[in-house]
Write a structure and sequence with these properties.
transmembrane; single chain; elongated; DUF7144; 4 helices; mainly alpha; membrane; DUF7144 domain-containing protein; transmembrane helix
Length: 134
């Protein structure tokens, strides 16, 4: 008896599901980064001060960076919902930048930063594993 190996489903339905998954995660994480940026701009007491951290940033400027990257992530997620190819490419790039930004902010807000790094890693995975939609 000859056995055949079934290949994973690469139909547009499968690709659409992963793209939607990435869009939802990018939207949620973008909103969370946007809110984090607002907290930093308002100089909220949520952030801890770490005097011996190598990468020191002014809290207000760090807030603007988080706010802008979060807003871009939200805009890109709307492109992912529309299945735009540009949004998949930009989504991987913005998720990568946000992983770096959250890595740099680990000492200020450790648990939250690690959670967002994981969310953005899932976004990159979901955008990279699907094949080009017809």
């Amino acid at each position: 008896m000859v056995t055949t190996h079934n290949r994973p489903d690469t139909s547009p339905k499968g690709a659409g599901g992963l793209t939607t998954f990435a869009g939802v995660l990018l939207f949620i994480a973008g909103v969370l980064d946007l809110l984090r940026g607002i907290m930093a701009i308002a100089e909220d007491d949520v952030y801890v001060s770490t005097p011996n951290y190598l990468f020191k940033f002014d809290l207000t400027s760090w807030g603007w960076i988080q706010l802008i990257l979060g807003a871009i992530a939200i805009l890109v997620s709307t492109g992912l919902f529309a299945r735009a190819t540009w949004a998949r490419v930009v989504g991987v790039g913005i998720a990568g930048l946000l992983i770096i930004a959250n890595f740099l902010s680990i000492p200020y807000y450790p648990l939250w930063s690690i959670i967002l790094i994981a969310l953005y890693a899932f976004v990159i995975w979901a955008l990279c594993v699907v094949r080009r939609e017809p």
